[in-house]
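ugh ok so i messed up the first submission bc i forgot one of the chains. this is the corrected input, ALL of the components this time, i swear. 224 residues overall. if the numbers dont match what u have on ur side tell me asap before i send this to the collaborators (the ones from the other lab, u know who)
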Amino acid sequence: DQQVKQNSPSLSVQEGRISILNCDYTNSMFDYFLWYKKYPAEGPTFLISISSIKDKNEDGRFTVFLNKSAKHLSLHIVPSQPGDSAVYFCAASVNAGNMLTFGGGTRLMVKP
Amino acid sequence: NAGVTQTPKFRILKIGQSMTLQCAQDMNHNYMYWYRQDPGMGLKLIYYSVGAGITDKGEVPNGYNVSRSTTEDFPLRLELAAPSQTSVYFCASSTVDKNIQYFGAGTRLSVL
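and heres the new structure output, hopefully the right one now
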C-alpha cells in the first residue's frame, strides 16, 4: 500500500514556463514533507521542505504548497530551466521524524 | 566535502554469491540508512541505524544484513544474492534533530 504517490511518471515543460509536480499521501499522521531532486548516476539531493503547520514554503524558483484536507502537495518551479530536468521525489515523515516514506518519482524534462 | 561515499559504483554478481556494499560518511551524523530503488519505483528502506551498535529493519530487510561498529561506516551485506536483489542501492545519513537526509551516489547491482 503506497502511502505516498506521485501519479505522473513524467512531465515535459518548455523552458521559462511553470513546472508543477504533484504528490498525494494517504497517512494523515504525516506532518513533514520534503522534495528531493535526482540526476542520473547521482544520489537524491534535498530541494525544499514544508511542515504541516504551513501551507506554502518558497525558496527562490521553488515553491511547495500543502493542502492538508486533500492530502496533497505540489512543487512549483518558475521559471523552469533545462538544468531542472531530473527525477523529483516527494517524501513524508511522521512527527517530523527521521524515517521518510518516498513517492515513486516524476521525471521532469525541460525543453530549451 | 566528501559527504556520503558509497563503493563500489557498479557490481555484477552471480546467483548465490555474497558481497558487502560499503558506505561511509564524514559529517558525524548519527543516523544512517540503506535504500533500494527499483526501476520506476521510489526508494524503499532496507535497514537503518540511529547510532553505533544500533540497527533496525526497514520496509524490505529480507536477504540483507547490516552492522554499525563506528559512527562513520554502515556496510550492507548480501549473503546469497538473488535476481530480485538487482537494484540501485543508496546509502544516506542525517542528524538526530533534522530529517533532511544526505545521499551517496549509489551502487548499481546486477544479479545474474
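quick check: The CA atoms of residues 15 and 82 of chain B lie 5 Å apart. that seems consistent at least. The mean pLDDT of chain B is 93.
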